[in-house]
Amino acid sequence: MTETLPPCPACASGYTYQLDSLLICPECGHEWQPGAPADETSDDAAEVRDSVGNVLQDGDTVMVIKDLKVKGSSSVVKVGTRVRGIRLTSGDHDIDCKIAGIGQMGLKSQFVKKVGD
């Protein structure tokens, strides 16, 4: 008896597979718990938190907490650099921003801390 797995809730692909307790879509990379409501999964993805657990929103100001090398360049984003007007995105680098002297780039929320300005 073959168990049929549900299609991916993100892209509706039928090529899902199970790895331990997660279902994974090889086409879009989405991972989810079987039986979890679809809206619960999207709520978790929509909430982005900084390194200390503060919820981030579009337009917030954050501070970099670690020296970050800029990929493909010899530039470094120094500790304490303030980034104003962030924009949240989905994906591995969940913050889009513009940093003075460097330009447009993506940051991971685990390397920033929200500041009250």
UniProtKB/TrEMBL annotation:
Q: Protein YjdM C-terminal domain spans which residues?
A: 48-115
Instruction: Give TM segment ranges.
Output: none
The record, for SUPFAM superfamilies, names: Prokaryotic SH3-related domain, Zinc beta-ribbon
Specify the Protein YjdM N-terminal domain's residue ranges: 4-33
Q: Which InterPro entries match?
A: YjdM, YjdM_C, YjdM_N
The text of the family note is: Belongs to the YjdM family.
What is the protein named?
A: Alkylphosphonate utilization protein
Protein species of origin = Paracoccus jeotgali
